[in-house]
Amino acid sequence: MTDFRIQGATGEWEVVIGLEVHAQVTSNAKLFSGASTTFGAEPNTQVSLVDAAMPGMLPVPNAECIRQAVRTGMAIGATINRWSRFDRKNYFYADLPQGYQISQLYHPLVGEGALEIENGDATKRIGVERIHVEQDAGKLMHDQHPTRSYVDLNRSGVALMEIVSRPDMRSPAEAGAYLRKLRAILRYVGSCDGNMEEGSMRADVNVSVRKPGDELGTRTETKNVNSVRFVMAAIEHEARRQVELIEDGGAVVQETRLFDPDRGVTRSMRSKEDAQDYRYFPDPDLLPLELDDAFLDECRASLPELPDAKRARYEALGVTRYNAEVLTAEVETARWFDALLDAGAKPAPASNWVAGELFGALNRLGVGIETSPVTPARAAELLALIADGTLSGSLAKQVFEVMLETGDAPAAIVDARGLRQTSDTGAIETEIAKVLAANEGKVAEYRSGKDKLFGFFVGQTMKAMAGKANPGVVNELLKKALG
Predict the structure, then answer these.
(1) Is the pTM value of this prediction over 0.90?
(2) Cα–Cα distance between 163 and 18 in angstroms, integer?
(3) What are phi and psi of 128, to 5 degrees?
(4) Could you say which of 72, 99, 125, 314 is the most buried, measured as most Cβ atoms within 10 Å of its Cβ?
(5) Using CA atoms, how far apart are residues 351 and 340, in angstroms rounded to an integer?
(6) 19: phi then psi, degrees, rounded to nearest 5
(7) Signed CA dihedral, 79, 80, 84, 90: sign only
């Protein structure tokens, strides 16, 4: 993953990228009310009097939302501010019934931290400036009526973590790696489900360009990009647009833009040349947050094994680096694999089987590993039958297919269908003799130097034995028979 340079008419340009990720906090209730946060409800069915800004309604912080944000900060090694404060960000928009958003500008809950991403054979440290907690706005719906827009306040008041990176990324690939790593950590911690399609995680993408070594250029902000692929595409398009604009004699305007995924381009939304005065001031209805040692200790103790630590543990157990990365990319996969190891499976062969046979089957079935028809315990039994020589690789595949259909125990399938591998040398020698007798021409060719024909004889013997012969024994006996 090298730096992404754009070759323009005037030479190379460097891209400077920062991301502001809005992650919906995992909680059953909103940040300052008891209204539900369930996704997909009918419009305006999850709105409390607080969310609708009815007169006299006072916000009460949801302790679980604060806890989840603190745990997230701890997971990226960030400073946890024992004292923080909520501010009002004042602006008018139809989906903001209060006329202000409760956020944290001056005193955020979480201070500086960092994420490490893979950068070729090395790692690169991407700084995180802050994580603050704020409430989401509602949603405008423009496609319900030809001349009217409707307001859905179900999201109004939903708790968000805004995770602000430093401008440390230099390519779309680095931004993608950062976003994937952050999403994985959030999902391991359980503080956000990371579902970008449902809007529970989205990114504002800040991009500027400069000649290497120059001062930072003027940046644009592309709002609410909702997939890793779209973030990378938005960066590439916006960087090239800025370079072309500058080289044509124009100037980049500090503005907010939108990404059009159908065309793969960004479009101007509104200028930020004259920054709007949001008139931030401390929210008078909310006391400052003060965190004590007991609360912080509980948050720290509740953290799970995180992706990097888990990957290192798998590698120490003999799993290849590639398999370890695959197995830790999604928290559900890591949990399933841990359960497989707990059931007694050997790490290296188990990792190969999961990354190959299991993933292939799940892809065919169109299901995730969390709903796999085969449990980790059953998979461990299958792998044990392979390890002790009861099943060959081909027989194991047959047993696995039956397990996917029936959920039966592998040993029961082996016994019921007679799929046990045989190492009976007498039976195998008999079939080898028949194969060689039926293919005398090929035997002569083999003995004259065509060594590649050995695979043919192995295949014919295995076919004659209905795939039940021990391949190692077949190879050994064939070598003797062929001289």
Answers:
(1) no
(2) 11
(3) -110, 120
(4) 72
(5) 10
(6) -120, 135
(7) positive
Cα gap 334→40, rounded to integer Å: 28
Q: In the beta sheet, which residues pair with residue 140? A: 151
Phi, psi of 223 (to 5 degrees): -90, 150
Residue-wise pLDDT for 209-242, tens only, equals: 999 999 999 999 999 999 999 999 999 999 999 9
CA 91 – CA 359 distance, rounded (Å):
49
Measured CA to CA in angstroms, residue 18 lies from 69, 203, 365, 387 at distances of 20, 10, 39, 49
- Nearest residue to 308 (alpha-carbon basis) of 334, 343, 269: 334
**Residue the block writes with tokens 């607080």:** 50
Round to whole Å and give the CA distance between 430 and 83.
82
Whether 131 contacts 69, CB under 8 Å: yes
Question: Buried b vs exposed e over 236-251: b needs ≥16 C-beta within 10 Å?
Answer: bbbbebbbeebeeeee
Tokens of 476: 């050994």
